[in-house]
Amino acid sequence: MNRFVVLDLETTGNSSANQDKIIEVGIVVIEDDRITDEFSTMLYPEKSIPPFITKLTGIKDEDVKDAPSFTEMADTITTLLENSYLIAHNVPFDMGFLNSELTSIGKPRLRNPVLDTVELTRILFPQAPGFKLGQLADYLKIKHDNPHRALSDAYVTAKLFLILKEKISTLPYETLQHLLKIEKSLKSDLYDILNKQMELVAFETEETDYISYKGLAFLNNTPKKREKVMIATSYGEYLDSIYEENGSMESAIKQYEKRDGQRIMSEDIYDSFQGKKHALIEAETGTGKSLAYLIPAIYEAVKTNKKIVISTYTTQLQSQLLEKEIPLVKKLISFPFKVALLKGKQHYLSIEKFIHELYSAEQDNYDIALTKAMILVWLLETETGDIDELHLPSHGQLFYRRISADTEGQADPSSPWFKYSYYQKARRKAQLADIIITNHALLCTDIFNEYQFLPKYDKVIIDEAHHLEETASKHYGLKLDYVNMQHVINQIGTFGEGKWIDKLATNHVQIKEAVSSERWNDLVSLTKYELDDLFRSIFQYVLHLEGTKKVLSDVGRIQYRYEERKEKEARWNPIIEMATRVIFYIRDLIHYLTIISQQLTDKEAKDETEHRIELLQSFIDGIEQLFLLDNDSVAVKWIEIEAYGAKNAVYLYSEPVNVSSVLQEQFFAVKESVILTSATLTMKNSFSFIQKRLGIPNNRLYSKKLPSPFSYEDQVRVMVPNDFPEWNYSNSDDFVMATCEAILSLAEITSGRMLVLFTSYDMLKKSYYLIKESMENEKFVLIAQGISSGSRERLKKNFQTFDQSILLGTSSFWEGVDIPGDDLSCLMIVRLPFQPPNHPVYEAKAQDMKKTGGNAFYDLALPNAVIRFRQGFGRLIRSNNDRGIVFVCDARMIRSSYGKYFTESIPKVPIAFDSTTELMKKAREWF
């Protein structure tokens, strides 16, 4: 069959089951890879069109009042669809609607083979930034004249399909073969198309860019050696050639404006390198700090032929440096240099494990089939094997855990898999690079594991350094949870149930002789029983404590900090006994797995067994740390439970109370030069807080504060209402009500374009539903973290897509969200971002400070809140042309004795403290 018909419908709503009706049909016919025909018609829906559909499509009731009914047009539509594939961008929707309408008038349902362009694009363009039709039209440069109108959407879908069909014709035989196996679990009927293509490819012998190994095709990318580069210019001349008049910056950047702070920062970093000093450099928004530190780092690394590490807090910023900043620096610098990105093992795909899964006989569910298909095509394109390049479906994430390099076991250079391992390739690339870009998590893993993960380095630049303490604490601490522990034991399984150990025994008969299957099965069920008992008891223990000791986390879990010596023995001792029993049983499991490992000669099977032994050992170490060691003086330990979750939804945590001495001994004392930078390191112009928390020695420290080049006095107004109701823990309803009224009043003035930052998810949720209720005719698009679906990036994009939108965010939205220009005109900070005083980690740190005569509020709570406040404040102005209002609903900023720490830590801007009504007048005048 070589006839393809593309269908697109506009409807009165999303559900034919709810009596929604079709209002417009667009059809485009493709024959011999050309568009040969089109058809479109409006339909009378026999009901009125909802306002949001009119807003989306532009179709009003009067446009359809004289249109034919579906009954009149049904035969015309079905005739066009005869003997052809039916194609749609989300087939279940369009075909479902059409069949529902056909059934309702007594006509037979369509039985065409279908092709879904959403699914096909996910498979064939797995790195696309999104899969909505508009996003794909931009990404693949397809002209889209009239979005959300049936014929225009059908045309774009038709052109998209032709691009997809073309892409199928480029796939190698091995990839097609695997896709054919997966095809029956997909929505699209691809069998004939793939089969035909395989026949065409079967006889091709020309050279390709792909390697084929064990029946899998993937891109050939062997890291290339680096040449030694000699630099003749002095550092001063080098900076002149970049920053000064007629320099490379001027020619490379459109509308280049020189920023003095940028060059000063480049000089300070180089001087710190030469003087073997550590440096704290606060570079406020607009300084251009990424370039300012890359320029000296590259010069120093190439000149001395020694690697320099750059660490960022998030893997997103890592990618941004590599994809945006490095290509720009390559234009600015005249000599060649090499940069490598290195992440933790869990980010890389293991080809060995993936092949293993491809050949396994298990029937895939839809998400796993889709994930496998996406990965098959992605392997032909990826140079890194870094899974962050893909947007996996939700259950695909779980499948990916089984095939990440984390499961590969110990590296064995003699294994044939070694040279195909993406993780090993990433490490080799890092060995050959001048600059290694990593993240705080891997940097800390490296520091606390005797420097065995990153190549050797003496100098390091830490961006977003205000997060280093928190990351180091997490990495020096530990986390255990019931679901993960049970998952690991379930994956290992018992003999006779088809899980890992059963498959292992089927392939290696000697195992059954070495280990009694009966004894093993008993042991597994005992371990699971004891584990369940332990976690249920912990859950009950926390649930029945007196209220004062429990707090709610910002995601709504109950937190309880426990201290061995202070727990009531009668209730706590049984938990200690259970923990001891769990360790005892897990030790037995390890004992048997060690016997099994000794019987195995096959490397892959041995690796998998060793990996499982390591996981079980980590559980024993964790339980000992959390329950059996007397370490209350140096560690804070706490439990989190989901009060409305399963009776064993329990998470256990431990972190060092003070990580500064560890960092001082294991990091600052052994490295030549550590540069720490961020837009927010000071409080009231002093670095002493961050220096103390990180343990940076005085004798080798240089510090510098670089002000923002933006003219805040002209660009920003800060407004604080003096008539908001008092906020308190037991009743925040009046305060939330006042906040929501202010949000809607300000949104009227700024036409939406508002970011509202909350300190608790609970308050965000209450506000979201209250605003939804009070808003007339859905005037503003309301987007809320944790309520609207999607990642932080996706929510931000949606916010920028709509003209009148309000974005509500908590924790992760206080920083790293860039919304320049007119998209954001008003930033509202609902409460000053203090951590709750009874948060387990804060409480333990506060007690530790009191012992040494410190003041927990002024030395810990306040500096943390000020730094977070400054991060939030920095969301508003991202360029010289931005202007807007920061509205702070918390009068403590003006009234309290410590308010000046907030006002004196942000740039000098006019601050108005007045009634809400007066402030609204001022806001109107300002805009």
Automatic annotation (TrEMBL):
UniProt-listed NCBIfam families: dinG_rel, dnaq, PRK08074.1
The entry's keywords: ATP-binding, Exonuclease, Helicase, Hydrolase, Nuclease, Nucleotide-binding
Stretches assigned to the Helicase ATP-binding domain: 248-539, 270-513
UniProt cofactor(s): [4Fe-4S] cluster
Name of this protein: 3'-5' exonuclease DinG
Gene name tied to this protein: dinG
Family assignment from sequence similarity: Belongs to the helicase family. DinG subfamily. Type 2 sub-subfamily.
MF (Gene Ontology): 3'-5' exonuclease activity; 5'-3' DNA helicase activity; ATP binding; DNA binding; DNA-directed DNA polymerase activity; hydrolase activity, acting on acid anhydrides, in phosphorus-containing anhydrides
Protein species of origin: Ornithinibacillus hominis
Catalytic activity entry: ATP + H2O = ADP + phosphate + H(+)
Known role: 3'-5' exonuclease.
EC numbers: 3.1.-.-
Alphabetical GO biological process terms: DNA replication
Motif (DEAH box): 463-466
Residue numbers binding ATP: 283-290
Database matches in SMART domains: DEXDc (SM00487), EXOIII (SM00479), HELICc2 (SM00491)
